[in-house]
Each structure stands twice: as C-alpha cells, then as structure tokens.
C-alpha cells in the first residue's frame, strides 16, 4: 500500500469560528510541487515514548534539522485495564504540545504523525485521538502493524550488507515487536539496499515491477514489547527468574512465524539480523561503555552474540538498583531493559547467526523516506 498523502490537517470552513489558539496545520494541495529544500516531519507515538524528527532531503540523505524524544508511558496500565489512563494521556498531550511548537517554529507543512500498538489496543484510543486534535491540532493517526513493520524495514536498508541473502529485521517497541524475514537471493548485490527501500510501497509487489524485488518470506507483529512484556511478569519477584520466563514466553510467541521452523544449525554467513530499538542501542552503548550516548558510534555497529550475552549477564548481576543507577542505561529505560534483553536473547537463541547489526533508526526515518520518496525529492539510493 503506498504511503498516504503526508499533507494532513483540518481546514476550517470559511464561516466557522473557533476558540483562540494556534492555527491548525494546513497542508499543501495535490497540485503543489514540493520544494526540494522543504522540511518534513515524522512523529512516532509508541507505548512508551513520543519521538519526532524534522528533516530535509539532501541528495539521497536525510538531513535532520530538529528532533524530540520523551518517555511518556502512554501504555502504562494498559495491560490490566485495556484503556489509556488519564495521567498517561495528560503526559502525552504535554509532549505533543512541545512537538507542535517545534513544527510551528520550523514552519513544517509536510508531515506524518502516527501512533502504534498502545493506541491499536486501547478501547478509548479514538477518544484520545480526538483529544489530541482538540488540544494540539495535530493530525495523529493510528497505523496498522504491517505499515509499522515495512517502515522499520525501510529505515534499516542502508545497514544491510551486500553479501546478505537472508535478512531478519527486528523492531522491538514498547507494546509490540515486528519481525520481517526478507529473501534477497534474486536481487543483484549492488541493488539490495535499494530493493529493500522499495518495500515502503508494500510487502507484495506487482507483476510489472521494473526492478528485482526483495521477497518478504514472512512477517509478524507480536503484541509484546518492552512495556507489555514487563507488565505480564511483574508479579515474579526474582529478577533472574523473571528474565528467563520473559525470554521463553516471547520465543513461544514466534511459533506462527514461518521461518522459525527453519532456524537451526550453525551460523550462516549469508544471514543478517538488524535490530532497531532502544533496547538494542542501549545494549550497544553498554558494550561500548558510553557514559554519554553517541549515535555515530552505535548506529551500524555489529555486535557478536558473545558480546551481547556478556552485557545481559552484567545487567542481571547489577540487579534492579544497579541498573537504575547505571548511566549507560539511563533513567528512562532502566525498568524496561530486562524485558527488552529477554526479547533480544530469544531472537538470538533461535536464528543461525553470531552477529547483530545495531540500527539507531526506525519508524520515524521510514516515515520520512516514504514521504520524500512519494514527493520525488530524494535521489535514488539508500538515504
């Protein structure tokens, strides 16, 4: 499915009156031709975090102009009640108002602002979306798991090795985890990254596609992420026992994922796992002993399973108090890192690889690429 028109926003009737406040966003019409220097925005409202990027197309690259990230814990209590709580919604509205101000300051007209698993599951999600529109005038939309998965895949394309023939992209979120298995054997090596990026238009290609296609063997959205998995096992007191139970439970949820049955044997040099999430980047930062996070050192790093196991064992040895005070983990993530690590270890236990590629990129970058690609303002090639 091609991305929807990124120009979204309410246009009031000529005679309508409204309460005083910031003017709503009015996007360009379909007849507008985008200026290559125009700014684009992408916002990802997940179960735990609200994150936004404002960027400009530069050749085949995305040049980030401004960004925002805040832990809002929108899904706090969702596992038990099935609803978004008033306090969670209030925190999120506060963060979205900051995003609104940034969009105004940069005069951004082309944007895509999306919500994921927490809003897909909450029974009062529509009320929340309406509240966001009333309080911030932001056109927030809830996207389906497949679109979330393919946008995450697109964002990781530049990190895929030309030697990779079988690719697994893993996006560990707060409320869900998306896995996409891609067969690249029929795509020439020099075109593999571009073939992956072309998946932003949909996992199923048409018969008249002019380029060799990356074949999506299977994909799955497991309704367990770092926040929801933690909530399911919060009644287990022992730290190590809780970690083991979370990891095995997540592995059981992969039984319906068709490549799972083929996962056996020694490490395959033609197989690559790319992981995108706060869990993966936090594990990488801990491995590098970064007291201050540095994206340039983390994005694209390849870690061995031995290195990852050593980091996770260190987390377990620290215990909850040690993790809380570890600057490499951070205050926003210390309570979630073990559920994320449980998911990560389950994946590495199942599939035949001894390495993981770390991606400090994800849904926001995929949203930006899809918008810019649809507008024709990016040069052909990995961004």
TrEMBL record:
Pfam families recorded: Ppx-GppA
Domain Ppx/GppA phosphatase N-terminal, residue spans: 54-372
E.C. numbers: 3.6.1.11
UniProt-annotated stretches for the region Disordered: 1-34
Record carries keyword Transmembrane helix: no
Entries under InterPro entries matching the protein: ATPase_NBD (IPR043129), GppA/Ppx_hydrolase (IPR050273), Ppx_GppA_N (IPR003695)
GO molecular function: exopolyphosphatase activity
Record keywords: Hydrolase
Entry protein name: Exopolyphosphatase
């Amino acid at each position: 499915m091609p991305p929807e028109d990124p120009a979204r926003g309410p246009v009031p009737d000529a005679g309508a009156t409204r309460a005083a406040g910031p003017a709503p966003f009015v996007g360009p019409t379909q007849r507008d031709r985008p200026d290559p220097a125009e700014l684009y925005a992408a916002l990802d409202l997940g179960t735990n975090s609200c994150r936004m990027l404002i960027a400009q197309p530069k050749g085949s690259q995305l040049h980030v102009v401004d960004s925002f990230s805040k832990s809002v814990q929108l899904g706090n209590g969702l596992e038990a009640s099935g609803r978004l709580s008033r306090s969670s919604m209030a925190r999120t509205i506060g963060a979205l108002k900051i995003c609104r101000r940034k969009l105004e300051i940069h005069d951004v007209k082309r944007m895509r602002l999306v919500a994921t698993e927490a809003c897909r599951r909450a029974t009062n999600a529509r009320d929340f979306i309406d509240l966001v529109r009333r309080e911030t005038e932001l056109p927030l939309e809830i996207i389906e798991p497949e679109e979330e998965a393919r946008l995450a895949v697109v964002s990781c394309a530049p990190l895929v090795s030309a030697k990779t023939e079988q690719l697994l992209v893993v996006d560990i979120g707060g409320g869900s985890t998306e896995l996409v298995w891609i067969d690249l054997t029929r795509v020439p090596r020099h075109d593999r990254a571009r073939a992956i990026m072309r998946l932003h238009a949909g996992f199923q290609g048409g018969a008249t596609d002019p380029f060799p296609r990356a074949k999506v063997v299977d994909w799955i959205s497991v309704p367990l992420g770092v926040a929801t998995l933690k909530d399911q096992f919060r009644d287990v007191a022992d730290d190590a026992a809780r970690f083991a139970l979370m990891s095995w439970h997540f592995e059981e949820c992969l039984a319906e994922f068709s490549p799972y049955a083929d996962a056996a044997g020694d490490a395959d040099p033609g197989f690559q796992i790319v992981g995108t999430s706060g869990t993966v980047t936090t594990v990488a930062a801990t491995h590098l002993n970064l007291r201050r996070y540095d994206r340039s050192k983390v994005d694209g790093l390849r870690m061995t399973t031995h290195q990852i196991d050593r980091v996770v064992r260190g987390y377990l040895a620290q215990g909850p108090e040690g993790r809380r005070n570890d600057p490499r983990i951070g205050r926003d993530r210390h309570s979630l890192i073990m559920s994320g690590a449980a998911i990560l270890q389950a994946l590495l236990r199942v599939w035949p690889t001894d390495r993981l590629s770390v991606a400090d990129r994800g849904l926001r970058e995929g949203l930006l690429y899809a918008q810019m690609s649809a507008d024709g303002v990016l040069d052909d090639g990995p961004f």
